[in-house]
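Illustration 12: DUF4181 domain-containing protein.
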Amino acid sequence: MNQYIFSVIILLVFVVIHIIMKNILNIKKKNGYTHVNKIHKRLEQVLIVLALVLLFLIGFVFNYRLEPHYFVGIISILFAFRAFMEWKFEKVSRQYILSILATSALLVIFIGIELFFI
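Figure caption equivalent — predicted structure in token form:
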């Protein structure tokens, strides 16, 4: 139960910082998510397939227990990839800053649960 409280607190802090950063840096709100280019879309699809295969291997082939925070770790990797692609191809929009912020929040949750609650 403590890990859920920890996650909620980190997510609340993330939301507050996200709103503040969005207003300070004057980053426009996006409706939905659009990929930067076709390479970004394909590589993200490959990452998702690899993540699903990895989770399958961990859970069913190697018979390790699948913890819910493993999904948080995978989502943080996807956000890190998005941040890199946005930084590389759309620096002007500064959307990558918010993606880095989301990646950081998810990594804090993943590492915090892994170190202190497992």
